[in-house]
Design brief:
Elements: H1 12-34, E1 40-45, H2 60-68, H3 74-81, E2 85-91, H4 95-115, E3 124-129, H5 133-138, H6 140-147, E4 151-157, H7 167-175, E5 179-185, H8 187-192, H9 197-200, H10 218-227, E6 237-245, E7 248-256, H11 259-272, H12 300-314, H13 321-330, H14 336-347, E8 351-355, E9 370-374
Parallel strand pairs: 1-2, 1-4, 2-3, 4-5
Antiparallel strand pairs: 5-7, 6-7, 8-9
């Protein structure tokens, strides 16, 4: 049985996981509270715990509540002005933990209302369930919320181990409209116990080619397993972040159907890992930052994706900026990397651009499209 995460002070690795949850949600929430086409947001924390560790450090439920109001409550004002709704659904299956959670949430909200003179005007509505996760996911009301096209949904699935986010759950999440999610998974355990029927019941490990020489890649490979579950004709983005703890590798997987969602998550990852945007250690054996050879703009990851982009442009598989940006995002890099390659090829007179010329590389869903052709082939 897994050790109760809320019983001891959160470890550094748990704190990092929580920090990434917080940063991810901090990027997510303003998009939807400012969006006039979104009536409100639902935030699901399916494995909520008690809300704190014994030192009072916030766990995911209080982190989400805290982030949702924004710095100096700036989002509360937007939500009130635009008459939006923010609903939280917390779930914790152990009764004693759920009771503690309810108490911690009430205390948090009381303090928040007092500090900000909100009285009864609090923007939050919340529900605290005590269900087995799979039952919570099948709850009639929750199913209805998940299918709401006018509401944005953020789902946090901080499971123990790997048994809860199976193929069925993953498919449900990726097919729910306007729904982004982030989940935790104990990738090392899957690698270690890949032959056991108890593991294969949840993850078809026959489809994963683990490399015994590179255990640090296990979380990447598990993300690829989930990636392969996405129907080919569906535009969807997944990215991963590996957290090394001792000899073990845990991980986070974020999913979104919108390029902007992935741009935002990738910024969080690259801020935490300037070498590869995907781990809390030097996963690609890059030169360290204190080495003479360290070059922030040419790390192993960036160089390898730049080379792939270059090859795809030269073989005319990529013939416009939007396709190029999406390729770059799907390979775990920020869109500006694509623009860097375009500038280089243009300078070397290898390509020409036509159409709405620009070098914009953020919010790619809004960027004007230009075409790319090979010089000499025009
Ligand atoms: C990793 S902890 C989550 C910690 C929490 N996110 C935090 O930041 O403190 C997983 C939590 O999910 C609960 N849990 C485990 N299995 C569950 C299930 N099948 N359904 C619902 N809750 C479950 C556990 O009791 C535990 O509190």
């Amino acid at each position: 049985m897994a050790k109760d995460i809320n019983q001891d002070k959160f470890t550094d690795e748990t704190q990092l996981k929580l920090q990434i949850f917080a940063e991810c949600f901090r990027e997510w929430i303003p998009v939807f509270i400012h969006d006039l086409y979104t009536k409100g947001v639902f935030i699901f924390d399916f494995f909520a715990g008690t809300g704190k560790d014994p030192d009072g450090n916030y766990g995911s439920p209080l982190i989400l509540l805290n982030e949702a109001k924004g710095e100096n409550c700036k989002y509360c004002n937007v939500v009130k002005k635009n008459n939006k709704k923010i609903y939280f659904v917390f779930n914790e299956k152990i009764e004693s933990k759920q009771n503690e959670l309810k108490q911690n949430i009430e205390e948090y909200l009381e303090t928040c209302k007092k500090q900000n003179n909100c009285g009864e005007n609090c923007i939050y509505q919340y529900r605290c369930d005590q269900k087995e996760f799979k039952d919570a996911l099948q709850d009639e009301l929750l199913e209805k919320y998940l299918h709401e096209k006018d509401y944005a949904k953020f789902a946090l699935l901080d499971q123990y181990g790997f048994s809860q986010v199976d193929e069925q759950v993953f498919s449900k999440l990726i097919s729910s409209p306007k729904t982004d999610f982030i989940f935790f998974i104990s990738s090392s355990f899957i690698n270690r116990f890949k032959e056991l029927p108890q593991t294969k019941r949840y993850i078809d490990t026959n489809k994963i080619q683990f490399d015994e020489e590179r255990p640090m890649d296990c979380h990447r490979l598990i993300t690829d397993y989930y990636r392969n579950l996405i129907p080919e004709d569906k535009e969807y983005y997944l990215h991963h972040f590996t957290i090394k703890k001792g000899a073990n590798y845990w991980g986070l997987i974020f999913g979104t159907s919108h390029s902007f969602g992935m741009e935002k998550f990738l910024r969080v990852c690259w801020n935490n890992d300037p070498l590869s945007g995907e781990s809390n250690f030097n996963i690609n054996n890059d030169y360290s930052e204190d080495s003479l050879f360290y070059d922030k703009n040419n790390t192993v990851k960036k160089q390898s994706i730049k080379n792939e982009i270059k090859d795809k442009i030269l073989s005319s598989e990529i013939t416009d900026n939007i396709t190029g940006f999406k390729f770059t995002l799907k390979n775990g890099c920020l869109p500006e990397l694509f623009t860097e390659v375009v500038k280089e090829l243009e300078k070397e007179n290898i390509i020409k651009r036509t159409g709405e010329l620009n070098y914009s590389s953020t919010q790619i869903h809004r960027v004007d499209k230009y075409d790319i052709s090979l010089v000499g082939k025009i």
